[in-house]
Structure formats: structure tokens, C-alpha cells
Amino acid sequence: MLQPDSLGADSRRNLFSWICSVDHKRIGIMYMLLAVFFLLVGGVEALLIRAQLAVPKNDLVSPQMFNQLFTLHGTTMVFLVGMPVFTGFSNFIVPLMIGAKDVAFPRLNAMSFWMLPFGATLLYFSFFTGSAPDAGWFSYAPLSTKPFSSLPGVDYWIIGLAVMGIGSISGAINIVATVMCCRAPGMSLQRVPLFVWIMFMQAILIVITIPPLNSAISMLLIDRMLGAAFFEPARGGSALLWQHFFWMFGHPEVYVFALPAFAIVSEVIPVFSRKPIYGYAFVAGSSTIIVLLSYTVWAHHMFAVGLGMGPNIFFAAATLLIALPTGVKIFNWTATLWGGSIRFTTAMLFAIAFLIQFVVGGLTGIMFATVPVDWQLTDTYFVVAHFHYVLVGGIVFSLFAATFYWFPKISGRMLNEKLGKLQFWLWLIGFNATFGIQHLLGLMGMPRRVYTYDDNPGWALCNGISSAGAVFMAAGTLVLVWNILKSMKSGAVAGNNPWEGFTLEWATTSPPPLENFKELPEIKSRRPVWDADHPDLADWKSEKTPEDRGHRPAGAKVAAWSFVISEAIFFILLLVSYVVFNSGDEIEGPTSETALDVSRTGFFTLILLSSSLTFWIAERCLRRDKIGGFKLWLGLTILLGCVFIGGQVWEYSGLISNGITVNRNLFASTFFTVTGFHGLHVTGGIIVLGIMYMLGRLGYLTSKRTHVFAAVGVYWHFVDVVWIAVFSIIYLDVFK
Amino acid sequence: MMLIPELWNWDSLVWLAIGIILLVYFVTFKGMPPLRRFALGLGVAFMAVAFVSPIGYLANGYVFSAHMIQHLLMLLIVPLCLILALPKQRVASWFSDTPKPQLAKALVMIGWIGGVGAMWFWHVPNLCSVSTQNASIGLLRDSSFMLAGLVFWWPIFGPLESTRLSPPSGIVYLFSACLGCTLLGIYITFTNSIVCPVFAQSVDSLGIMASLQAAGFTPMVDQNLGGLLMWVPPCTLYVGAIISLLCRWYKVLDPETIKGPVASDHEPAHLV
Amino acid sequence: MSTFPLLQPASPEAEAIFELFITVVLISLGIFVVVTGLIVIALWRGKAKADTPKQEFGSSKSEIFWMTGPILILVWIFVITTKLILTTNAVPKIQPTDSTHELELHVTGHQWWWEIQYGDSSIVGANEIHLPTGKRIRVKIESADVIHSFWIPQLARKMDAIPGHPNYIWLEATKEGVYEGRCAEYCGTQHTWMKFKVFVTSPEEYEKWKQEATAADKTTAQQVAKTAPDGKDASSSGAKLSTKEAGKAIFLSEGCINCHALEGLSTPSIGPSLTRISDRAIIGAGVLKNSQENLGRWLKDPQTYKPGCKMPDFNLTDEQVKQLVTFLWSP
Q1: Where is pLDDT greater, at B210 or B181?
Q2: Residue C147 is nearest to which of A143, A278, A312, comparing CB atoms?
Q3: For residue C32, how many other CB atoms are within 10 A of its CB?
Q4: C305 in a domain, yes or no?
């Protein structure tokens, strides 16, 4: 892990040192570069879409190609631009802002990053198989099931997403652990910069929001590969279940993007207004509330599917409700501007444009929350305009603000402001031309996802304007790329704190050294650098904030708990699908009553549960440094785990020899999926326990390192708890 | 419908319970500030609403959604009001030394399992039917709701600082409880099978069910509404409680209390 | 055909939704003007300043005070939304029995066309709907394959057609005319061309259309039966066939019969029914206007006009196309 100076001249050309780097700053930069690359890829896809739609009855691309383009445009922008770029900023900035040397788990961080290019390669490799995914980024079943998408495009989509999902979850767990465990002394959780707090919330949201997607795509993969029928109505499956699961991921995902934008703006606006953020607690608290509420609004994507009156009203209310915490933020940013002395830097211009365009996107969002209006406007260009105002007008603009704001810290050089302003105006005009006019197209009744259209009055003109605007955005992007390349070589030298920033990243050199800080200023408020620069006006003199009590939980335990929560949601959703498909009366073929041997599995359940007990004893032994006892009880735990797996193999072989396989009926599909994933988790646990055993034998595990073992324990006990739920729902049939 | 006199259950046993609560409270705590008295009053008023008003009558084997409203009042609203009625210093003075962290931890576990478990337990189909038909099991159910509600709210709003959760842990506590309720609520809302058979074929002694059903309020609609009730109001209440925790955390409401570091020995270790 | 179908409602339901939309747009405009105004003023006041301004940290009172406005607005929006949901969403799953509701429509989405069945007659149509004014019609919406969405902007809300999950809406037109409808949910390669037309006429004209169409169905069946050849081996019999007879022979031998229904000859509904095709307004769910020439073009090369559609290119000669068109146009 020896690293030269993180951005030192001697290593700049050394590609290999980048590839094996575990430095959070380098990994952050790699995330951003990857995102920029795919921003260009996704942008080219968008340009092709707009070129095809520029004139009516165009035949520039074939319908199949068009569908692949919008599918990949959506998937790329969400998973390969939106998620990585913010993880990149989070990676680079968060440790600096909290005065840490690195993230909590630097090597996990590198793994998280490298999952992304692998996932991306899988996704784009589908082009070479002759069939890129073309079922939309939402892959609605049954269109995405085998009978309607027989080519392997959707399979690549699923596997690519699964790989990237694993990377995102582990990256997010890392941020959670970093914020909780690595803060400098004096920095209580109530004192962290808003960027850190909101990215912390975003990381938590990623941890709980990716699992529904993983459940959904693993079920779809089992449908496609093993012949199950979760999402094939023709064989008893449910088309709506996919939508529920997908949007349970998909809507919080919007906040996975929106929260970082809030985080960035909450830093940029105060600095360029020379004021602290107005109502810190309200901005921070409303972000927390958004995380909680974002999980209750998913079905507003489904108002047109015929949910029924009650759910429609409920989800309308929840959607309107979530507008409030966002409104609170808008108010606080405006109040921060109020009375400030404003510096119109490029970063600030982008932040202001964000503010106004985000308000537009938010207000059209309210229109969609009024259900009957949604019935008319959904799936038209009005909704395209709405979410691009949020995602581009809001989030991409905030991203540019972040780029101009932090580029000096990342590279040590300033970006050119003139080029920056040129880029700003190109984007402002291009963006509003492209997407503003689409509101009108929606009212004209133009539906989404059509590769061409009739020459109805007005359609050609509006689409023409929309396509022309895209050219402006493309030009603006080229200006940015040129600006970055030019400034890297010959930009003005930045110095430590070019913007007179408030937070700790500005207390170190630009770019920061490998260990981030030579020394830290004293942290007594939310703006330590401001306090150091303005001793008379120091924040802690006028605004008291809760003191740091010095409590920092063990990183391993935090990571284990976060992981367990994420996995719990994954299993809950699989169990939900079990209940959905097995609570009706009219199942043909085997059911849990006819196919399963409850008493035999009951015995193996006891075996598994007793392994929790032996684990607990092993942990006690370790804490008291009784390595002999530790090895004995841990060995017994492993043995019990193996016996349980053996029982499962016995059960499976019995079922399979009776012709009950995963594609037999929905009971069999759900049964094998749930117990199979549980079995995989037990097997993984046994491997980890084996590693622990070896570490114990080699003398690496001592009473001082119990927290690592305790973290493994969290996982092992969790696997048992899941089995209790599985056993009572599947074997004891509590829902019947 | 409120006007039908038969729907009012004036001779309910709940008056006795209310009497006992009021008596105990006013004997134990004298000279309470009006806000605490108001909380107490609100609590017993909701108890009365749950059993004396038509909700109580309809909950008794008639309408599933009324039955759900009764549960929510007994599990969430009434205990919350009663806990808020308890004065901090007086209760604290009963315990000479601060409880051990393990005890606080155990209380949290019991509270969460009690609060979420009570809802799940009493909606197992057979238990749901039996407790509606059998008065003594019904009494057991109602009192267990009340008790579960008290232990559930204790770590959040309990009068003892030392047994309270820290705000971040409290948020996790409430959010996970919310998910627990949501899961069951979603199940009851969307399922096509009958959760509580009694309500599917209720004995119609007043002759109102026929007109209700004709108006589209079929047992299935009733059950879906009940599911939504189990899902939405508790979550709203929990989000409200979370907001109050956030205020407490950032000390938005009383800036006086953040003068110096507070004794840090019983900050719960499990912040996740 | 109107330029802004969403702003020109022609049914009570579309009207109500339109009014709600306008209300919400006005509210939004108000909010937008206030927020943007405040931002612009703040920027204007702050642009010339260079000194360190007063360091304000916020106040809970002003936050709470400010929040009341948005809360009231949201409650207002919620109330008007709920009101409209309650009135428009209440479509019974059981057909009501009173006389104003006798007509029921059964719509099935297919990749990529619409099958229309009428509850009050045996007529089966494709990609066009005939309706009388002033009747409240219950529409059952289903799908034969993937998810589609049934949408006539000027007449009714969107409602998804989901396999295994039938949905119901009310359809009621007040003004006579021709309305555009289409599939609004992405449903595969040719989602673009999955349109249909709605012909709204007076109840009398509708009755007339119904009787004529039913009669035409009957005549078609009789004519088809009469047209030689009636066996599959007819094309090889060597006898001299008329143009129409040759068309029927192609219809049987090329496999049209496997996907398309033709009264008296076949019943499958993989593709649209071809009975009374000369009455239709569009071909290929909207790619072409219907005429004998266009039908010929379509039969010659469907994949050029609707690439990826389920109808393969049969490599028919011009002669064969002519025969087939003649047969289909008046069997």
C-alpha cells in the first residue's frame, strides 16, 4: 500500500500506480473520469435520439436501434454517470471535509470502483452479440421476459446491473462507515458540513434502495435462464410485481441523484454568498426526512396501471408530502442568498440555474402527483420534460457547479472562468430549448419512446427546436472538456483556498498530500476554516452547536450492520414474492404442504440456530483470549453450518428426483429462489468463518481484534434470523 | 350514522379503566403543568373514542377498518399520550441510580418487538377472529396493545433520559418499525385472501351492512381500507416522531440546553 | 384532429381533468414567480456588495412560519385531487344494470394493434372504435401479450392494458367527431405505430353503423363461402381462377389464415381481423391511410412501412398482391 504523493508529478504518468491505488482521492478521480467518459457515450446516444426525432418520419436509425438507444441512454446515465460521478465526489471530498486520512476501508473502496468498469463492459458487450438491451431502462415485464425478448440483450443488462449494484452498495457502506467512524476530533455528527451529512444520507439510501432492484433482477434472471415464471402472466406470474419492485428501487434512486445535488448546492451557495447556510438543521433534517419518505412514494410511477382508489390517494398524498422537505431546502438556499454579497463565479451561476430549473422540475412533479393529471400526462413528452428538468436542469447543472468549485482542490489549478461562462450560457440555452419545448410536445399528445411521428401541426417545429438545443449542450460539453484539458496544463495555480471556502478541504494544499492533512485546524463549529480565517467573527462565538462526545463506533461493525440491513431488504422482497405467489388457493402442482418435510427441516433449523449459540460462545472465548476454546467452538459452528447445508442438499435432491424443479410452478420457483439465496448466504458465511478459523490458528485474531469477529457475528446471526422468517413463512405457512 | 343510538356503547368497561388511570395519576402526581394534564386528557379521551363511540361498536365484528382504527388508537395514540403525561423529574426520582446500559438496551429490544409484534400477532387470521368473538380474549388483546404501545414509545418519549435512545438510533428504531407496519399493511391492502374471517361474514344485527355493501363498501374494500390504515397513519405518526427527534438532536427548539458537553457515559453504542 | 388534444377535452371526464390541470398549473406558476422573484431580488441586492455580510444562521420561527403556506397549498391540491379520483376512478368491476350503461367495450392490446369487441353486438374491429354520443360506456382493457396503455387524450384517462390484470374505465363522448387514440406504454419495437381512431356519432347513426356492420359481417361470411376455391389444394388444381378466387387461394396458401380472422374463413387474432377491411381508415395501426393502393403497398412489403412488425414479408408478386387486395376489399 505504499503510495507516492497522490497527484505528484512523478507518478502522474504511471498508469499502473493508478490501477492499484487505494487512495480515496485517486479512486474518486477515477470514478469521475469513468463518469465523464460515459457522459459522452450517453450524450452521443441522446444526440442520435434527438437527430432521429428532428424531423417527422425520419429513418436515420431503425426502430430496433432507436429502442436500444433510449434503453442504453437511460441505463448509462443512471448507473454509469449519475451514480459514479457522485460517488466520485463523495470519495474525494467527504474524507477531506471530516478531516480523515482516507475512507474507512480503502481496499473495499478500490473493489467498489473496479466493479463499475466490469459492469459497464458487460452492459456494452451486448452490442457485440448483436442485441443490445431494448426493453427500456425500466425493463417492464413481460416485455423483458424470454417470450418477448428472446435475444441476450436483457441478460447482459441484468448481469451488468447486478455487478454495478454490488459496487454501489459496497461503496455506499464505505461512505457510511467513513462518516460515522473517521471524523476528526471535535467534529460531532451535528457539525459535519452539509455536503457530508447529505452524502451520508445518500449512502444510506443507496444501501436500502439497491436491494429491491437486486431482488427484481435476480427473479427476472431466474425467469429467463431457468424457466421460472415470476413475471410471465401467461404462466401465472405477475406483470405488476416487477413494477412494484422496480420502482421501489427506481424512485428512491431519483433521490440518490437529487441528494448529492442538494449537497453540492448547500456548499456552493453559502461560500459564494459569504454567509453560512441558513437553517442548517432544517436542510440536514429535511434530507433525512426525504430518505425516509422516498421509500413511500414508488407507486406514483404506476398511477396508470389501475391500482385502485385507496392506493392512488395514498401515493398522491405521500408524493405531495415529499415536496415539503424539498421546499424547505429551496427556502433555505434563497434565504442564504438573501443579504449575502454574491460572487458570480461559474460555479455560482450553475448553482443558481440549478435552483430555478429544479423549481420548475419540482412544480411539474407536483402536477404528476395530482393523479388525474398524471393519467393524462404520464408517458408523454411532458414527463420527459419533467424529469429532465430534475435530472439535467437540476442535477447535471449542480454537477457542473461542483466541477468548477472543487476542480482547484482536485488538480491544484483553476478552471478558466471565461470558458466556464461560455459553457454555462451554451448549456442554459441548449437545455431550456431542448426540454422546455417538450412540455408543449406533451400537451400536443406526443408519447415517449416513439422512434418517429406523423407530421401533425406543430410537431415538426417543436421537435426541431428540441433537437437544435441538444447541439448547444453538446457544444457546451466540448467547451468543458477543452477547459479541463487546458487548465490541467496551464491553468492559474489555485493555492489552498481560492474561493475562501469554509470547510476543512480548504485547509490543506491543492491537491492534498497522500495523508490529506499536515495539521488540522481546531474544530469548534460547522465552519472551521472560516473560524480560522475570521477569529473575531468565529461561528462558535455566536452559534452554539452540540459538542463532539468523541464516540466513534468500530468501522467493521458499522459495515456489517449496513450490509445486513441491505441484505435484509433483499430477503424481505423475495419473501414478499413468495407470499404473493403462494397465498392464493388455486396453485397447480406441488405446494409447501405437499412437497416439504416440515419436521426434517425443523431439525436442520435447530442445527442452524444452535450454530448461533456456538458462535456466541466462540466470541466470548476470543474476548477472554482463550484461543483453544475459540477454535473449538468456531470449528463446531462451521460444522453445524455444513450440516445445515447438507440438509438442504438432501432436501433439494429429494425434490428434484420427484420432478419438482424451479420451472415446475410458482411455488417451486419461489421456494428454490428464497431457500437457494439463503443457502448461498450460509455457504458464504461458512467460508468467512473458515477464514476466521485460519486467522485464529495463525494467531492473527486476538482479544484486541474482537470487533472484526463481532462483525462476522452480525452477519452469521442475521443468516439465522432470515432462516427463522423463511421457515415460518414457507414451512409453517403463517400466511395461510 | 353517528346518530344511531345503538352504535354508542355507553356501558363499556373502558370507563372503569379510564377511572383507574385518572385516579392513579392524580393521586401520584399533584400539581402537574396544564400541558401534561392535557396529554392525559387526550389519552383517556381517545380511549373512550376507541370503545364508546361507534368505532368501538363497529370494530366488534362488523367493519375491519373500524377494528383497525381501534387498534391504532390503542397501540399508538393512547400510550403516546399517556407517556407524554408523565413528568420527567418525578419519575426519575423514583429510580435512585441510573439503570444499566444493558437494561436500556433490553428495553429497546422489547419495545420494538412489542410494538411491531403486537400488530402482526393479532392479525394472524385465527387469532384475529377469536379475539373478536371472545370477549375475554378481546380484553387480553386490547390490554396487550396498550402495554406494547407503552413499551414501544418508552425509548423515544419516555420520561427517563437514561432509557431513551439517542436521536439517530431512535430514527432507525422508528423507521424500521414503520417498515414492519408497512409490510403487513401492504399485504392486507393488496392481498385477495381474507385476513380476518369474522369480518367477511359479519352478523348484521343492525341491518346496516346490506346498505354499506350496496354502496360499494364490500368486505374486500373494507379490508383494503384497513390495510391502508395500518400502513399510512402509523408511518405518518412515525415520521412526525422522527422530526421531533431531529429537532431534539439539533436542539432546534431549546438552544439553552447545549451549553456544555453532556455526560457521555450512556450514549448507545449501536448508532447504525 | 386537434393540435393540443390535452387542452381540448371532449368528454366530461377529460374536461374535469383539464380543469384540475389548469388549476395546478396556475398554482405552480404562482409559486414559480414568487420563488424566482425572491432569488432574483436576493441576487440583485447582493451583486454589488464586496464586504463580509452579516452572518445569519437561520431561525426556527421563520422556517415554521414559511412552511405554513406550502402546507396549505399542498392540502388544497390534495383535496381537489382526491375529489376527482373519487369521481372518475369509481369504475365498477361488475357491469351496472341500468339502461344508460348497456354498451360495454372490450379492448385488447396486441403487439402492435388494438382488438375491439362490442358488448352489444358480435362485431369485432381493429384499431378503430365506433361510439354513440352521450352514453357512459364501460371499457374493459386487457392485453394479449405485454403491457400496453389505452389512451384517447380528448376523451378519457390513460389506462394500462396489463396481461392477467384487466382494467376498467368509463368512456363518454359529448361531441361528435373523429378522435385519435394510441398506445402510451412502451411495448416493443413498433410501439410507435399502435394508434387507433375513435368515431363518435349520434346514437342513431351509431345504431345504423352497428346494423350495417353486422349485416356486412354476414354477407362477408356468405361471400367467402361462395368464392371458390374452398380447399387448400385449390391453387394446384390448375383451373382458371378469377382475380378474387386467386386472392382467396393466396390467403389460404400463404398462411394469412394462421394469424388473421376473416368472417366465415378463420378466427385467430394474432393479427387484426380482416373482415370489412375496406371500411377501415388506417392500415398497420396508423402507418398508412387505408386505400386499395396502400393496402397493396403494405401487403407487398410490410417490413418497410412497419419494420419489426409481426407480419413477415411474403415476397408476393404484384399480380398476387392485386389478387389478394381484390379478395380482401370485397370478399
Answers
A1: B181
A2: A143
A3: 15
A4: yes
